[in-house]
Write a structure and sequence with these properties.
The protein is built from eleven helices and 17 strands. It is an alpha+beta fold and about 400 residues long. The protein has a six-stranded antiparallel β-sheet, sandwiched between helices. It has a six-stranded antiparallel β-sheet with strand order 7-8-17-16-13-14. The longest helix has 21 residues. Keywords: Hydrolase.
């Protein structure tokens, strides 16, 4: 434990852009490492790109196959024979509070490798992940490593609004994804947690390109401003509605689904103001959750919003989807129906929430074929565990 504390202090003292070089020095001193590489997951969550080289100058690897993909997908350390004689390479997930950032690969002499060393390396990778999150405030290095191609300006705005792509606590697990990852427009998600509550926001702004991104940015920040002022869910919706109407006078609006989960009981307060929908997998049965729809934010002046209550149970899986999912048409004009979505939810039921959005979007792409997507697609998956005496 003292050694880990010393390592964390060393990483905290490193320059933001020099975390990998510092990690290499520390791991060489402690374990005689022969090679250390850091890979970041790209925005589409399909590849892992190496950090340290300029963007696109070193080949990426799959986030789903091979040794690195195995460690990233399973979120467990995976060791195999190293590229040096008599060496072992440990591939270690770099994850912060459930948010999967990438993989750290460390090659050490075989004679000095055992289960205890593997556990220590896993702790090191977690500590490195926390420092990467902090360092991203001051350097673009790790954000550049996530890009397989250039983001549109609209996508740049949208990704900067997101809290992460996954999150985990004892009471729940969350995973989310937006597509097309490098050219998203108006879809977005946001979450915030406290001791006893989780607030989840799903938004679908109208329009395309930069105008849609700016509209969504206004909505997200208005909702955050109200939430951080301590307002309840309905007042959050009302304040954001006023902000959007005051700016656009009803010419543009935002569809929003606001949810506030009470962690001790599973009670959920909901304001449904638009198109994002909820599906539930409970006891093997997939069904949509019917909510009382209200006007989107910003459509009319001084709209009054009301909330409703429903309940989640331990073992429930919830899937939140935008109209870019359920309105997608095949080349023959067939919509991605409720039956198809229900099948996708069933077929991914054994995957952890962080992997479900990517898997469902893959099925959606197969349905769409070679036709370019006409709208954003947003999927957020939640597994509800509930609060236990242990948690």
């Amino acid at each position: 434990m003292d050694r880990l504390a010393s390592v964390e202090r060393t990483l905290r003292a490193a320059d933001p852009h020099a975390l990998l070089d510092t990690a290499r020095t520390v791991l060489t001193d402690l374990y005689g490492s022969l090679g250390v590489d850091l890979y970041m997951a790209d925005y589409a969550m399909t590849i892992l790109q190496p950090v340290g080289a300029l963007p696109r100058t070193a080949p990426p690897v799959s986030a789903h196959t091979g040794a690195l993909g195995r460690a990233f997908g399973a979120q467990e350390p995976y060791s195999c024979a190293g590229s040096f004689p008599d060496s072992v390479t440990a591939h270690l997930p770099v994850t912060v509070r459930g948010d999967r950032l990438g993989v750290l690969s460390v090659t050490v002499p075989e004679k000095s490798f055992d289960a205890e060393v593997l556990a220590e390396l896993a702790d090191f990778a977690e500590a490195l992940g926390h420092q990467i999150v902090v360092a991203e405030r001051d350097t673009d290095l790790y954000l550049q490593a996530r890009r397989a191609e250039r983001l549109t300006l609209a996508a740049e705005i949208q990704w900067q609004l997101l809290p992460g792509r996954s999150c985990a606590r004892a009471e729940y697990q969350l995973g989310a994804q937006l597509e097309p990852a490098y050219a998203i427009h108006g879809d977005n998600f946001d979450w915030s947690t406290s001791a006893d509550h989780l607030t989840l926001t799903l938004t679908n702004g109208m329009g395309e390109g930069i105008e849609a991104a700016l509209l969504t940015s206004l909505a997200i920040n208005a909702l955050r401003n109200a939430r951080r002022a301590g307002l309840d869910l309905t007042d959050q919706a009302c304040l954001a509605d006023q902000a959007i109407y005051g700016r656009h006078r009803g010419d543009q609006h935002v569809s929003v689904l606001l949810l506030r989960f009470h962690l001790p009981t599973g009670n959920v307060e909901v304001v449904d103001a638009g198109s994002p929908r909820v599906w539930r997998l409970r006891d093997g049965l997939v069904e949509p959750v019917d909510l009382e729809g209200q006007l989107p934010l910003g459509m009319f002046e001084d709209t009054v919003y009301t909330s409703q209550q429903w309940q989640v149970r331990p073992g429930d899986r919830l899937l939140f989807v935008s109209d870019g999912v359920y309105d997608v048409a095949s080349p023959a004009g067939e919509r991605y129906s409720e039956k198809a979505l229900a099948r996708a939810i069933q077929s991914t039921r054994l995957l952890p929430p962080a992997q479900v959005p990517r898997a469902v979007l893959h099925e959606l792409a197969g349905h769409r074929g070679e036709v370019l997507a006409e709208d954003d697609a947003m999927i957020v998956c939640m597994d509800w565990h509930g609060r236990t005496p242990e948690s």
